[in-house]
């Protein structure tokens, strides 16, 4: 906690004053052009990777960068929890903020995808096990191939995104574009993943 306290003091004393005009504008304006859906992994920092300023990304971070499909899918029927907050954030970003782009970003060495690829026993982590069911289509296609599963999972989550009514409407109107990325932690490289890759 000491590190966080010191970091906060540095921000308030040294960083905030240099961006005072930006923060004054952000106090009354919130129009990020991009929704970035990434993993909760501490090594994957959306604003750092994309070099964006505060106010430029609307960020959702979930374990495994998973995007629950619109209600009615088999995972929901099985009782997977935690999905409504993610769905609400997606709906708000698209229908209210009017984002023009959505990035779903997976990454190398993803613990969630490794657990699925290796068939790890998640008996002691029931909430994690339920949540990872949102990656079931990708896991079924790519089990035991972690790198391939990471890519397939990004494509699967793009497909899940398209089931959301607000996203489907924006895609149909041509005002929204979906992007799939896989970020490689040791090199900083980003591989693009097309939505159609799930069917490949």
Question: How would you summarize this macromolecular structure in one to three sentences?
Answer:
The chain is built from 10 helices and 5 strands. The protein is α/β, with parallel strands linked by helices and 200 residues long.
Strand content: 15-25%
Q: What's the N-to-C terminus distance? A: 46 Å
Global outline: globular
Overall mean pLDDT score? 91
Return the structural class.
Answer: alpha/beta
Number of alpha- plus pi-helical segments: 10
**What is the radius of gyration computed over CA atoms, rounded to a whole number of angstroms?**
18 Å
Write the element-wise H/E pattern from the N-terminal end onward: HHEHEHHEHHHHHEE
| Percent range of helical residues | 40-55%
Number of strands: 5
| Strand order of the biggest β-sheet | 2-1-3-4-5
Major sheet characteristics = 5 strands, mixed
Low-confidence stretches: none
């Amino acid at each position: 906690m000491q590190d966080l306290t010191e970091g906060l003091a540095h921000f308030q004393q040294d960083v905030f004053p240099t961006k005072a005009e930006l923060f004054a504008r952000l106090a009354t304006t919130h129009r990020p052009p991009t929704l970035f859906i990434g993993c909760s992994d501490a090594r994957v920092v959306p604003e750092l990777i994309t070099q964006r300023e505060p106010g430029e990304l609307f960020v959702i971070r979930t374990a495994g960068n998973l995007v629950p499909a619109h209600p009615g899918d088999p995972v929901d029927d099985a009782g997977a929890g935690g999905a409504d907050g993610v769905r609400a954030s997606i709906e708000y970003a698209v229908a209210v903020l009017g984002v023009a782009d959505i990035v779903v970003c997976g990454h190398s060495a993803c613990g969630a995808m490794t657990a699925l690829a290796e068939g790890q026993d998640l008996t002691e982590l029931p909430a994690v096990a339920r949540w990872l069911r949102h990656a079931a289509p990708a896991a079924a296609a790519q089990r035991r191939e972690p790198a391939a599963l990471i890519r397939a999972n990004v494509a699967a989550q793009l497909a899940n995104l398209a089931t959301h009514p607000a996203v489907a409407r924006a895609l149909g109107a041509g005002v929204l574009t979906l992007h799939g990325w896989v970020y490689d932690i040791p090199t900083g490289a980003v591989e693009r993943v097309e939505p159609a890759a799930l069917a490949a």
